[in-house]
Amino acid sequence: MGTAQLLLLISNFLVFLSIVVCGVSGAGNNVPRKNFYKSTRCPNAEQFVRDITWSKAKNDSTLGAKLLRLHYHDCFVRGCDASILLDKVGTDQFEKEARPNLSLGGFDVIDDIKRQVEEKCPGIVSCADILALATRDAVSFRFKKSLWDVATGRKDGNVSLASEVNGNLPSPFSDFATLQQLFAKKGLNVNDLVALSGKILIIQNELYAEDLNLWVLSFMIATSYINNWILNLIFIYIY
């Protein structure tokens, strides 16, 4: 597989992932759209986020994988509302404290990007959009161009409950029936599940020989979606 074909495959997969996961939970009039910030008092918001993210990605080759996993864990619970970034309020456990989220990374990166964007455009760019944009930009860094479009204009969530994570987030050890049930909760069907899993397997098999960093990224995606027997196969490739 050539570089151009590989880029197209990854791009198509990530666009599909963004649509089916981030598009399932939009509510009311809060409908994200492309170039939302162009008509606001922060028209260069996406450029700001990209520049900051790329400067960080230069020094951390794992940033794309970290943010992609963080973004996915956010989206699949309450939608892409950045509720996973919220700190604890009251006595209830919040999403960060849920067992599947204890190994997540990248929180400090998103916090710093938010801080820098706030210095330029106070009170305009949501954390939800920053997380979505930074994820896209971190993954795209090595290619020096955006691999997929991000719809922006999302509002930040103000509810974050650990109790909602386990019932919504697929485990890497979930069997097919469980995955089917969890996807159905989000309005996704078996075709969506098979499409995602199939693309993961294609990416995983092609990337290992060509670029270990890209393969690691595909593995991070895979651990969020596919079941135990596929993971066992992947570990055979590693060891």
From TrEMBL:
Disulfide bonds join 42-121, 75-80. The keyword Cell wall biogenesis/degradation does not apply. The active site is at 73 (proton acceptor). Ca(2+) binds at residues 74, 77, 79, 81, 83, 95. Keywords: Calcium, Disulfide bond, Glycoprotein, Heme, Hydrogen peroxide, Iron, Membrane, Metal-binding, Oxidoreductase, Peroxidase, Secreted, Signal, Transmembrane, Transmembrane helix. Binds 2 calcium ions per subunit. Belongs to the peroxidase family. This is peroxidase. It comes from Nicotiana tabacum.
